[in-house]
């Protein structure tokens, strides 16, 4: 396999990142080609010519370390991403015996579109849910915590949810006030996380697993499944495969949606 960086430089850089006080980041758990592509872009943007040069700069520039982690960590998200998948989830949730209160975990929530989507879907259906939204990137999570979104994120598919939002004159918009009582945010690294003692009816981890190595993916999946109540659902991204679902006590319900055995 062709790599962007020499092996020796790559492994030395991984040691630097793993021991950096503002990072302590184990990049071995991520797929190398994807991390390399992001790092190449970061080097170009910041004006560095090599990994050793970047490593030397990281030693004296804490802000550079934070910028690098934010750049390398993928934060692609959108409201009702892969809409047909959300529609199938909504149909399943409507039949679930959760009553009008469900516990939901949005793992790797990025800038907040995913937990906001769950909240809007449940609110429109007349259901309430407590949502725990977690991500490893603190600045991105602080942005998500505002539950306020740029004008360009409002699309036609959000129009049915207009009664549950406030749109400002400048086009920015936010969820109604009750969402701030329902959605809770916390910094969390999935690679270091343990199963929640209070289990969830629904766990969402979409377009996150594809960035992990196979070993790290298994570790994260184990945490997600252990955090589900028996009969609860795991919702993953449209491009993600879960061939080991049965071995983990999961049954496929529809594409990207799995139910934990009771």
From TrEMBL:
Stored PROSITE patterns: CHER
Gene3D superfamilies found in the cross-reference section: Vaccinia Virus protein VP39
Superkingdom of the source species: Bacteria
Domain CheR-type methyltransferase per the UniProt entry, residue ranges: 1-262
InterPro entries attached to this UniProt entry: Bact_Chemotaxis_MeTrfase (IPR050903), CheR_C (IPR022642), CheR_MeTrfase (IPR000780), SAM-dependent_MTases_sf (IPR029063)
Transferase recorded as keyword: yes
Keywords: Methyltransferase, S-adenosyl-L-methionine, Transferase
Protein name (record): CheR-type methyltransferase domain-containing protein
The species this protein was found in: Sulfobacillus thermotolerans
